[in-house]
Amino acid sequence: MKGHAKLALPEMFTMLIGFGIVFLSILYSVMQISNNEAYKEELYIVQLGLELQAIQATDVNLQRYITDAGAYNLIFQGGEVSIKKGKKFYFTKNPDNIFMGGEYSPQLKTKTIGPLTIFKTGKYIGVKKPDEVPSPYLTICEELQTTAKKININSTEETKKIANMLKSGNTKYTTNDDNADISIKIQKGPNKIFYKPEKQSKKLACEIQNQLAKELNISINIIPINIEHLLQTDEKNILKKPGIIIQIDNFENKENNAATAINKGAINYGLI
Amino acid sequence: MDSYKLFNKKAQGPEIFWYIFLYLPLTIIVITSLVIIPRSLMAKSLQPVPLDQMIQSRQLQSQMWTKNPVTGKTNLMDYQITKDLNKTYTTKQITYRVQLGNQETYYNKELYELAKPISPFRYLPYLEERITNQGKLTIEEYYPKQYAIDKK
Questions:
Q1: Which of B55, B70, B149 to mutate to test the interface with A (most CBs of A within 10 A)?
Q2: HSE of A108 in the Cβ direction (CA atoms, 13 Å)?
Q3: At what angle do helices B24-45 and A2-32 cross, to 10 degrees?
Q4: pLDDT at residue B42 tops 80
Q5: Can you tell me the distance from the alpha carbon of A223 to that of A192, in angstroms, rounded to the nearest whole number?
Q6: B93 compared with B36, residue with greater pLDDT
Q7: Which residues in chain A are contacts of B72 at CB distance < 8 A?
Q8: What is the mean pLDDT of residues B42-61?
Q9: Is the CB of residue B91 less than 8 Å from the CB of residue B149?
């Protein structure tokens, strides 16, 4: 018996060491679950992908600011969110939306990507650095085949400079021309665009609204006008014919941007 | 003298053989498995498919909302089957059917016909029904349990 006990001791010691290692390994694995990098990456990618899907389930403009996107190499392109050489999530996109993505890597100083913004504005959705996000005031304009060869431009004393910028060297913009297809009046006032309630005028208002939002970064509502309820003296009576009235509040020193926006809007409308 | 048997050269040969070629590699394999398996299981334990299906349903409904042609205001109570409802940009293998009243449209009908009879075994089903001003709206989706790429 004495001999047997002596013989068993080293074996028990070996077994104890073995079980100890196994037990500690299990304990270590359990403790590491919350720090599991593969799990974290998977969760992060899925979250970003589903957020991109979820923002398309609304008809309003949205922005989600991510304070720090972490120490990953993130790629947003072609309907997928991925971590370079790692996890991927394929998100779905409405056919009407245009996706704006990119590749974001940790910066040298901070070793993280830094802030990112997930956004939906007008027909654009995507992920960009906060300073690259398009204006949050964009809207979706109706798909409509429209053409215009001439546009009447009317202005007030305050907005004369913008009208002149549009007309200088461009014969498509005229004044009091009966053959013009549609008219634009530019005046000073709270940011609004009034339009004759018909498709052509609404399309022009919408296109110019988007361009003004981009150029001047302003929120500008478009409002249909019921002409039947206007007084004879109301200046909005010009909307008896197809057209719009653009009211801009503060455009001092931004006349060039305003003229560019109106011109771009008119071209998108179908000015040929 | 028995207690020194382990270190006896005669007895040492076969025991060391078992330790080196069986027990030691086995211990390494077991420990490595214990560390790696929970990690890979954790990564696979994330099941976003049901949430994805619900979001897709909301996405489809937002495409179906009607807009006032004059004011452009969205009417969340009135639905319509739009021409692009059967188009969704994704590389994921998914299929859905949308029915509003008597009208219906499919995305990836081929997969729909394959997936519906064998769900919920291989494909996860999702069904949402609601009563609208235009009749009963049904959205039915089938996704593989684990995401798969649509090779088309």
A1: B55
A2: 0
A3: 20
A4: no
A5: 7
A6: B93
A7: 139, 142, 202, 206, 222
A8: 86
A9: yes
Kindly report the nearest CA distance between residue B121 and chain A, in angstroms. Answer: 22
A164/chain B closest Cα distance in angstroms: 31
pLDDT at B100 over 80: yes
Residues in B touching A118 (Cβ below 8 Å): none
Alpha carbons B30 and B26: distance in angstroms, whole number: 6
Q: Which residues of B touch A (CB under 8 A)?
A: 2-3, 5-6, 27, 30-31, 34-35, 38-40, 42-43, 45-46, 48, 51-52, 55-56, 58-59, 61-63, 65, 69-72, 74, 84, 87-92, 94, 147, 149
Least confident of A242-251, A261-270, B13-22, B143-152: B13-22
Contacts 24+ apart (CB under 8 A), B95-98: B95/B141, B95/B142, B96/B56, B96/B60, B96/B139, B96/B140, B96/B141, B96/B142, B97/B138, B97/B139, B97/B140, B97/B141, B98/B60, B98/B64, B98/B137, B98/B138, B98/B139, B98/B140
Which one-letter amino acid corresponds to residue A24? Answer: L
Q: What pLDDT digit, counting tens, does each position of A198-253 carry?
A: 889 999 999 999 999 999 989 998 999 888 888 888 888 888 889 999 999 888 88
* Overall size of chain A counted in residues: 272
Residue type, A2: K
> Which parts of chain A sit beneath pLDDT 70?
1-9, 33-34
Question: Distance (Å) from the C-alpha of residue B97 to the closest C-alpha of chain A?
Answer: 15
